[in-house]
Design a protein that fits this description.
Layout lengths: L15 E2 H13 L3 E6 L8 E6 L2 E2 L5 E6 L3 H8 L2 E7 L6 E11 L2 H7 L17 E16 L3 H14 L6 E7 L1
Parallel strand pairs: 1-9
Antiparallel strand pairs: 2-3, 2-6, 4-5, 5-8, 6-7, 7-8, 8-9
Amino acid sequence: MDSINQQQPEHNHEDLHQAEAVKKIQELAGKTNTCFFSTRLRATTVPATRPMAVQEVDEQGNFWFLSSNDSNKNQELQEDDQVQLLFQGLAHSDFLSVVGTATISTDKARIHELWNPILKAWFTEGKDDPRITVIKVAAQDGYYWDNKHGNAVALVKTAIGAAIGQTLDDSIEGKLAV
């Protein structure tokens, strides 16, 4: 039996490397700026996963977050620095999974660069709150699922495929090597 990918009449797999991978990471992560941040990946129990706001994705593909030094997440990162970030931009596209290594710092200059006034809801003393830490996730690799030509084209292709009984979608997926 053929897989769904083998039924595609057009190319739907493209692995991306270095600059192309970083560009795809920035594009997909930028569509939502919120991800599921998973820790304890090496534990024998279920990983700990929580929503987190991405403050920045830099030119090297590093993700930057602000977090509290007394959070469970920070404690878990002290024990195991491997994390997975999961993004979903839209219902049928803009999916991204990234695995990387997290480091925690208290770099005040970086905190000031990443600060957003809405964060005062969590850091009540503002950008000088002594509990604020910076988490940098250095992406090691990942995987993406997206549309090649946007959601409108994807919808039309899927509808035509359903009408004629052929797999016609506009999907593209592949590995990301940063």
